[in-house]
Amino acid sequence: MKNIKSIIWYSCLIAILLLGIYGVIVQTIEGHAVTGISKQVPWGIYIAAFTFFIGISAGSTIISFIIHVFKVEHLKSIEFKTIAVGLISLVGAVLFLIADVGNPIRMMKVPIIMRNTSSVFFYSSISYYIFGGLLVYQLVNYVRAIKNPKNEKFRRNARILAIILFPLAMGIVLVPDGALFSFVKAREFWNRPLLLPHFANAALVSAVAVMVVIAYISEKIEKVELLNLSAKVLIGYMLIFLVAGVLFLDLFDILVLRYSEKPEGIEAWKALTNEHLVFFLVNILGLVFAGILLLIRKGREFPNLFYSAILIILAISAYRYNLIIIGQEIPLFKGQNVELYFPTLIEIYICAGVTSFMTLSYHILIGKLKIKSIIKNNI
């Protein structure tokens, strides 16, 4: 039964990956003409996915920091998972950037060949490479520490790297991306005082939700229990706190837009409650229902905890999408018309393919490093 479930799971992932490869081939040949982006809306679903996964990467790193520094014994079993998810999510985020640029060589041109120090892309690219390199080094030290438990050097290195990566996750990953939007005064939907903490809080709650999904799939398909009852309850309370924080910030955004006297703010509210109403409802109601589910008696146990995590992931994905798209659809100048963006099938194929690639990479990483058996022995 376990083998059948695994075969079905991996077959679906490979099929989706092939669909993504087809999308990449079509886009490479035809160019961005096969996408929904335009001069007015140059950032589409690729950048929305980039912000989602860069948030998960930073959020996973923060969870790793909490486990290492505060020695949260209940979460020791997902210690390696947080590092792996942080690294793979960062790779996925960069792949979405490549899809948006359309050419990996062109993407490397600014930070490496041109060294254009006046470009924000120069600094953000360099920061991702540094962050990714440190994550790889932390991963190596963690695996060595588990395989050589008597050697304290590797465990100490992993702990030090967790401490170093925490401010880097906040300072060079979350802050620049959040600030990049919140400081753009020309875009009313982005220029909000609490956008930066909203961006960071959404990143953390989505990372915790992803870890819950991984734990549930491991338990059901791989028959490996990553979270005991105490760990599930702890994570459940973490999610309640984080979901409440994101909902508060969502409410603040609604009040700012709803009662804004600026024309751009009024237009943003209209777009949010008309053309983007579905995503807006998924964002708000997803968080509300997830919070309610977590508060019930068995809400912090599987499968209810898993259902809450799925709702949170969908809600944060919808939030990221609206954040990116609505800010561009509203005209900057008088006389311009509102230009709506709709992702094409090719864009959806590529997004699904990259997500499938990340999932397969995670399974391969776990298998190659033989972490499953190691985790079983350390729970």
Give structural notes:
The protein has a single domain (2-378), classed as Formate dehydrogenase/DMSO reductase domain (Formate dehydrogenase/DMSO reductase fold), CATH 1.20.1630.10. The longest helix has 31 residues, at 152-182. Helix 2 (45-69) crosses helix 7 and helix 7 (195-220) packs antiparallel against helix 11 (304-329). Helix content is 77%, strand content 0%. The protein has helices spanning 2-30, 45-69, 79-101, 104-114, 120-147, 152-182, 195-220, 229-258, 263-273, 277-295, 304-329, 345-368, 371-378. Mean pLDDT is 83; it is low at 375-379. It is mainly α.
Short account of what is shown:
The chain has 379 residues and is mainly α.
- SSE order, as H and E? HHHHHHHHHHHHH
Helix content: over 70%
The residue-averaged pLDDT reads: 83
Question: Which CATH architecture is right?
Answer: Up-down Bundle
> Which regions have little confidence, pLDDT < 50, spanning 5+ residues?
375-379
For the record, give the distance between the C-alpha atoms at the N and C termini, rounded to a whole number. Answer: 25 Å
Describe the largest sheet.
Answer: none
Fold-level CATH name: Formate dehydrogenase/DMSO reductase fold
Write the layout of secondary structure elements.
Blueprint: H1 2-30, H2 45-69, H3 79-101, H4 104-114, H5 120-147, H6 152-182, H7 195-220, H8 229-258, H9 263-273, H10 277-295, H11 304-329, H12 345-368, H13 371-378
